[in-house]
Specification:
Layout: E1 4-8, E2 14-21, E3 29-36, H1 39-48, H2 65-72, E4 78-83, E5 92-93, H3 94-98
Antiparallel strand pairs: 1-2, 2-3, 3-4, 4-5
């Protein structure tokens, strides 16, 4: 089961981090970050992009401080990179994953 978690920010919004199967390359995983008003809205944003079976159950892998910083500084608020995290790989916009 994919891991994930969330972090509530002081302003009331949340950052949700999920480890999901890569839709472009079966057998690999990606780490997806979403910044939204609440957890339900974050999951809805992913479902609207075509990732239908996305659920957040538990707090097994909450976002790290680096992940929170990355998603807050991105204009779309949706990022991904392969998991397990490669230190040399940068975060990509979600459009690059879904092409």
């Amino acid at each position: 089961m994919p891991g994930g978690g969330f972090c509530k920010l002081p302003g009331g919004s949340v950052v949700v981090a999920l480890t999901l199967p890569n839709p472009a390359a079966p057998g690999t995983n990606v780490r997806v970050l979403v910044h939204a008003v609440n957890r339900a809205r974050a999951l809805t944003r992913l479902r609207n992009l075509g990732l239908r079976a996305v659920y957040l159950r538990g707090q097994t892998e909450p976002p790290t401080l680096d992940e929170i910083t990355a998603v807050l500084h991105h204009p779309d608020g949706l990022l991904w990179r392969t998991a397990p995290e490669a230190t040399e790989e940068l975060w990509h916009p979600i459009r690059a994953l879904l092409k």
